[in-house]
Amino acid sequence: MGQTLLELISNLGVLALVFVFYVALKPGTGRIPPVYRQVLFGIGFGAAASIVMHIPITLLPGIIFDTRGAPILLSAVFGGPLSAIIATALASATRFQIGGVGATVGVLSLTIYGIGSVLFRAWLDRRKQEARLPDVLIFGTTVTALSLPVIYLLPQDIIDRIVPVAFYLLMAGNFFGVLILGSLLTMEVRRIKLVEELRTANAEAQAGIQAKDRFMASMNHQIRTPLNAVLGEGQLALSTSLPSDARRRVEQMITSARALLTLLDDALAFARLSAGKFEVRPVPTDLCEVLKDRAETAAKESAGKNLEVIAHVTSAVPSLVSIDRQRVDEVIERLVANAKAHTRSGRIVLSADVTPGDRAATHSIRITIEDTGDGISPEFLSRIWIPFERGTAGDGDDVPGTGLGLTICRETIERLGGAINVTSTKDQGTTVVFTVPVNLPSGPEGLANGEPFEGVFRADEPAARTEHADVQPAVSKASGDRRVLVVDDIELNAQIAAAMLRNAGFEVSIAINGQEALDKIDDNRVDLILMDIQMPVMDGIEATKRLRQHVNDQIRATPVVALTAHGSDADRDVCISAGMNAFLRKPIESKELVAVVRQLVP
Asked: How far apart are CA 300 and CA 429, in angstroms?
């Protein structure tokens, strides 16, 4: 009994090795051509049949059987027609070499198995169907039954002795061999198919994402370009003497254009977050400067309201902290915009502090935006994080926007490793607090190296009331001999940027592509280049690279400011890598443009 069990385990082990061999050479992997793979499969299936012939399972003296039929019956089904031919040849050679009166009958049986396997594979291919275990079992049983008549080629005395049991032994050996090996191989085939389907689905999904990204990038560029003209012309118009009614209409036009720009930014930001495109880029950041700029801007944009905006930074905040400045600034901008939309009078307070973390050197920067506005009803407060949900102002009107602002803020802060929370009381105001983890030097000196700051900004005052003299906006004048070259293939955009710079006192010339810009700087002195990116003949990236390789040291060092409707982090990186000094995104604000140019050519 022990010997029989050992022989049975050995037969099953050989079938398991066939499965392992098949997995190692499964279709769709490696660089083995299909024909060579069939040859290797044939050798593997044939070798398995040959091995089990040498370790037959003994039931009674003279009554033995093995699982040689299973590898041959399945050789073409899972390895291909050539595999069946090779496997049958190897197994037949082994049976002939073993010899005995049953050699011829054994070879004929193996040949029938091989032919049946090829025909079954042809049937599957014609139906474009994968091998299923029930079909494989029916096929194996049928072919085994059809091969039984060859037993009658044996001598009569042997026929009389083994025929009563041969039928059952052959059927049992082949059935259980096909069941075991067929189960393993069909599962592997299904796994391969699922992997291929997943790979195909992933490729299609990636293609869809890329198509969506291209569409969003194209729409972003196409929408921002005319918006640049609308906002630019509006700002230029406001710099002239206009009748009060005309000025009011231009201001309304600019307000509407900026609202459209906000909608576009929200849609793009939400799409990027949904696609999982998020890379943390920490840089040394002066939080006092960030809050001061946001407070001053908010106050200036709140003209006509009895509203003051306060920026407050405690001494615990270091003068520089390493955070993703761009994203933190964007979150503050969105939250302040919400506060302005809901606050008709009173105040908005922006404050920054440090909260200690679990470890001595790990802390969080805590930013608070608090207003005395309409507040949020308890019903809506439970839904504020749901995309596209919008609240109402105090008079019941819907607040303009997409309903994505808070969703974008939460996603951004959580991906930065922080948290955000909103508390509100109806008709009393709202407080939003978010934290961003930072690494600070350990010890008291590491946490107290900043200076306390508090500035109060009002829309109806020319400058903010503040405790520090440096809060007063610096006023600088551009010298008339400073020359700027504006490079843009869209004439209207070029003219708008040129007009903004001329109003600030700069001399300005225009080029319509990168090649023309390079030609002009060879003939005329230029102190700064305002460079569009996407242009015919030569784009801004290539023009900047060539500029940085110029033989003239002075020309080679000319500052270049990117001016583009493409505004992703990747676009910014490409521009900086090409040698540009700054990056501006269309539509441009006159104040921002002049500030950047004056910074580079004071």
From this structure: 21
